[in-house]
Design a protein that fits this description.
The chain has one helix spanning 185-190, and strands at 2-5, 9-11, 28-34, 41-46, 66-71, 82-88, 105-107, 112-118, 122-128, 132-135, 139-142, 148-152, 154-157. By secondary structure, it is mainly beta. The chain contains one helix and 13 strands, in the order βββββββββββββα.
Amino acid sequence: VTVELDGPRSTTNAAGQFVFNAVAGGTDVVLILRKEGYAPVQARIGVASGRTLPADHYRFRMERGASLEVALPTPVGAGGPATVVITPATVHTEPRFAWWLLGPYEVVPGASVVLHDLPPTRVGVRVFHRGARAVPPPALAFLRPGTVERVEVRLEPAPQVRGRVVDPEGLAVPGAEVVLEAPDRVAAGAA
């Protein structure tokens, strides 16, 4: 297992133990644990000041990773790959997993990709692609260790806004900059 402590890295020994020397006492640090075949884990711990803790004081449980196939059967929208983001299905689901280390991933519309070492829990799958919108937004999957679940996300052409810019005489105004903004940015950001 690779263990990272706010930057520095270590690897566990045969007994699953690791050591970081010369860590400032009286502070909180974040540990990140990674190993192929397992879901990445994070833990925030307090470093004792002025005393040495036994080697087994902190125990961290890693779970076997799950796999997810994300399929985009319809090649719709702009060229190039779509972006796939995996998130917990609910805000407070499994905060011990290091979600920010997962992706974003890319998949070409009309194909699929299999993602490994994901947390074994319920996840949301969001797909973003220029010129398209994903249906359903987001797709949900319940991931189990050692299995490959499949989510199929259809891409549909995104709505278009078209128009023509003219001057007072009705003549075209070439090169006019047109910007599309939400009338209420706060509400648009919350959606």
